[in-house]
C-alpha cells in the first residue's frame, strides 16, 4: 500500500472515531456547563495545568521515539515499558507533594485533596504511553478510536450523573481518573506487550537522543500553552479563568478535532519514508492545503457567530466568554496548519529543529501572555495570543521549508495564497448581511452557517481550489 493510501485510510478511520468523540464530548460539556459554575471549572482548570506538566515529565518523548525507531525488539519494548511504569510511580507521588505548593500559591487547601486524587490520573496516563505508541506504530488507528469513544461515553454518563447529584468539581476529578484508567487497561491489553524477565537500561539509551529533543519541545510547549491559565488563575481569579478557559477550549475544538484526524496518522505513516524527503514534502503540501481551506471556513464562521456558539454550547451564564472567543477564533486557521508541523519534524528525524522552533515560539507566546495579564483584559490577552500564533507560523514554516525540505519559504506561501482570498470573500458576505437580526440563537447560527457556506463555495470557485478538494474527496 502506498504512503498516500495508508495516510488516507488512517485519516478516514481516525475521522470517524474522532468525530464520534467530538459529538460525545460536546454533549457532555454542554450539560456540565449548565450544572456547574464558572468558579468550579476555574478550580479544575488551574490544577489541570499542572497535571499536563507532570504528564510531560512522564512522557519524556518516549511515545514518538518508539514509533520512529523500527529496530526495537520485544525485550527492548518490555524494558522501556518497565522504565515508564517506574517513572509513572515517582512522578505521581511527586505530583501529590507538589499539590501543597499549588494550595499555597493559590491560597486554597482544596488543591491538596484534589492533588491526591488526580495523582492516580497522572500515574495511569504515563503508564499508557508505551502501549498507546505501540498501537500507533502498528497503524491500528481504528482500535485507538474505539477505545477513546468507549471511554468518553461510559465515563461521561457517570460524570453527568455525579454532577446532577451535587458532586461539584469532584465529578470532573472522577472523569479524569476514570478515563486514564480505562484507556490504559484497554491499550495495554490490545497492544500485546510481552513483559520479559529482567531489566536493562540499554533500550532507553537507544531512543534517548530522539526522545530527549521531543521531551524538551514538549516541556517548552507546555509553558507556551499553559502560562496564561497559571497567571490568570493567580492574578485575575478562578471565575475569570473559568470564562477564559471555556472560550479557549471552545476555540481549540476545531483545531484539535480537525487536525487530530490527520496529525496522529502523519508520523506513523510518513516515518516509513524518513529517507525520502521529497515523498514526505509532496504528501505534506496536500495536507497543509486541506487544513488551510477547512480552517479558514471555521475561523471566519466562529468569528461572526461567536455569540450564538457560546450561548448554544454553554448558555447565557457564559456571555463573558464571547469577546475572548471571538478574537481567539481568528487564530483557528493558523493553528490548524501549524499544529501539523510537529509530525513532519518527527517523521523526518529533525526533532532538534522541532525543539529550536518551539523555543522561539515560547518567547513570542510568553511575551503576549505577560502583556495580556498585566492589562487585566481578556480581550487584550486574546489578541496578543493571536498575534503570537501568527509569528510562530512564520518562523516554524520558514525553518521547515529551508532546513528540512530545502525549499523556499515564499514557494510555500504561494501554495496557500488562495486561503486569504476565500477568507476575504466570506468576510464580505457576512458584512453585507450583518443587518439581518434574528433573536433565536439556534436559527441565527444556522442562517450564518448558510451564508458562510455560500460565500465559501463562491471563494472556492473563484480561486478554482474546489478542484483540489474535489479530487481529494473522490480519492
UniProtKB/TrEMBL annotation:
Its main location: membrane. InterPro entries: Poly_Biosynth_Transport (IPR050833). Keywords: Cell membrane, Membrane, Transmembrane, Transmembrane helix. It comes from the Bacteria. CDD domains: MATE_tuaB_like (cd13127). Pfam families: Polysacc_synt_3 (PF13440). It is a multi-pass membrane protein. The chain crosses the membrane at residues 12-35, 41-62, 83-104, 110-131, 143-163, 169-190, 290-310, 322-342, 354-374, 380-400, 412-432, 438-462. It is found in: Cell membrane. GO terms for cellular component: plasma membrane. Belongs to the polysaccharide synthase family. This is Polysaccharide biosynthesis protein. It comes from Clostridium saccharoperbutylacetonicum N1-4(HMT).
Amino acid at each position: 500500500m502506498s504512503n498516500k493510501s495508508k495516510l488516507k485510510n488512517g485519516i478516514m478511520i481516525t475521522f470517524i472515531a474522532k468525530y464520534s468523540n467530538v459529538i460525545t464530548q460536546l454533549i457532555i460539556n454542554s450539560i456540565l456547563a449548565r450544572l456547574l459554575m464558572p468558579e468550579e471549572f476555574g478550580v479544575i482548570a488551574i490544577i489541570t495545568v499542572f497535571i499536563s506538566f507532570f504528564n510531560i515529565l512522564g512522557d519524556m518523548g518516549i511515545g514518538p521515539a518508539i514509533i520512529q525507531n523500527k529496530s526495537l525488539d520485544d525485550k527492548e519494548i518490555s524494558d522501556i515499558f518497565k522504565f515508564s511504569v517506574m517513572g509513572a510511580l515517582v512522578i505521581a507521588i511527586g505530583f501529590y507533594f507538589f499539590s501543597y505548593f499549588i494550595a499555597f500559591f493559590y491560597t486554597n487547601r482544596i488543591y491538596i485533596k484534589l492533588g491526591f486524587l488526580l495523582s492516580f490520573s497522572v500515574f495511569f496516563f504515563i503508564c499508557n504511553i508505551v502501549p498507546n505508541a505501540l498501537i500507533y506504530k502498528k497503524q491500528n488507528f481504528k482500535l485507538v478510536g474505539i477505545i477513546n469513544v468507549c471511554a468518553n461515553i461510559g465515563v461521561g454518563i457517570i460524570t453527568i450523573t455525579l454532577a446532577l447529584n451535587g458532586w461539584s468539581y469532584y465529578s470532573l476529578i472522577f472523569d479524569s481518573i476514570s478515563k486514564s484508567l480505562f484507556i490504559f487497561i484497554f491499550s495495554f491489553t490490545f497492544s500485546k506487550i510481552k513483559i520479559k524477565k529482567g531489566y536493562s537500561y540499554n533500550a532507553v539509551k537507544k531512543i534517548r537522543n530522539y526522545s530527549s529533543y521531543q521531551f524538551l519541545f514538549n516541556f517548552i510547549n507546555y509553558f507556551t500553552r499553559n502560562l496564561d491559565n497559571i497567571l490568570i488563575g493567580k492574578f485575575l481569579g478562578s471565575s475569570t479563568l473559568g470564562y477564559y478557559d471555556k472560550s479557549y477550549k471552545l476555540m481549540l475544538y476545531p483545531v484539535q478535532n480537525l487536525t487530530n484526524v490527520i496529525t496522529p496518522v502523519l508520523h506513523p505513516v510518513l516515518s516509513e519514508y524518513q529517507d525520502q524527503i521529497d515523498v514526505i514534502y509532496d504528501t505534506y503540501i496536500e495536507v497543509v492545503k486541506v487544513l488551510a481551506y477547512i480552517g479558514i471556513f471555521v475561523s471566519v464562521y466562529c468569528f461572526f457567530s461567536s455569540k450564538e456558539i457560546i450561548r448554544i454550547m454553554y448558555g447565557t451564564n457564559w456571555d463573558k466568554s464571547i469577546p475572548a472567543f471571538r478574537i481567539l477564533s481568528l487564530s483557528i486557521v493558523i493553528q490548524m496548519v501549524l499544529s501539523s508541523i510537529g509530525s513532519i519534524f518527527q517523521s523526518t528525524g529533525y526533532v532538534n529543529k522541532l525543539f529550536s522552533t518551539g523555543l522561539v515560539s515560547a518567547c513570542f507566546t510568553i511575551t503576549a501572555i505577560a502583556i495580556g495579564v498585566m492589562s487585566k483584559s481578556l480581550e487584550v490577552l486574546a489578541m496578543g495570543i493571536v498575534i503570537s500564533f501568527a509569528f510562530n507560523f512564520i518562523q516554524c514554516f520558514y525553518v521547515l521549508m529551508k532546513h528540512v525540505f530545502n525549499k523556499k519559504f515564499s514557494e510555500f506561501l504561494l501554495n496557500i495564497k488562495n486561503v486569504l482570498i476565500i477568507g476575504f470573500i466570506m468576510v464580505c458576505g457576512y458584512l453585507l448581511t450583518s443587518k439581518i437580526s434574528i433573536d433565536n440563537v439556534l436559527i441565527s447560527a444556522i442562517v450564518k452557517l448558510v451564508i458562510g457556506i455560500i460565500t465559501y463555495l463562491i471563494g472556492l470557485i473563484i480561486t478554482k481550489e474546489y478542484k483540489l478538494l474535489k479530487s481529494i474527496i473522490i480519492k
